[in-house]
Design brief:
Layout: H1 4-36, H2 41-63, H3 73-100, H4 103-110, H5 113-121, H6 125-134
Helix pairs in contact: 1-4, 2-3, 3-4, 5-6
């Protein structure tokens, strides 16, 4: 018979995924509540990015101090464009959709986005069939 410690170590990944999904569900409910109370989805995205910057920046500064590559102007422009286009537009559209639908629908449709992205980036029939099979 296995000890409690060995059983816990075997089940740790499942527990982590369960807690992660619980956190996602809780945050979806909090976001929907905030949007229903009148908070603008655009303001919510700004708050989310500001809080993420405050939480993550100290780790990046301390842990990557010696291995950071030189920041040239072209690298800075690429990072700025990716930072502005992908997460900002994506999150604004997601929260606009959540404001108009339910938190359940918005969270469920979020899992389909990689499949839809694969269809839009690749016009091959195999990719389309793979995505349709995933849905």
């Amino acid at each position: 018979m296995e000890s409690i410690s060995q059983l816990y170590n075997k089940r740790k990944p499942y527990l982590a995924v369960f807690l992660l999904q619980l956190g996602y569900a809780g945050m979806a409910i909090v976001r929907k509540f905030a949007l229903n109370k009148g908070m603008s989805q655009h303001v919510y995205v700004v708050y989310r990015h500001a809080i993420a910057t405050v939480v993550i920046a100290p780790f990046a500064i301390v842990l990557d101090r010696k291995i950071r590559p030189k920041l040239t102007f072209s690298v800075f422009v690429k990072i700025a464009l990716i930072g502005l286009l992908e997460p900002v537009i994506d999150q604004n559209l997601f929260y606009t959709g959540m404001k108009m639908t339910t938190a359940t629908f918005a969270t469920a449709i979020c899992n389909v986005l990689p499949a839809l992205g694969s269809i839009s980036y690749s016009g091959t029939s195999r990719a389309c069939l793979t995505c349709i099979g995933a849905i």
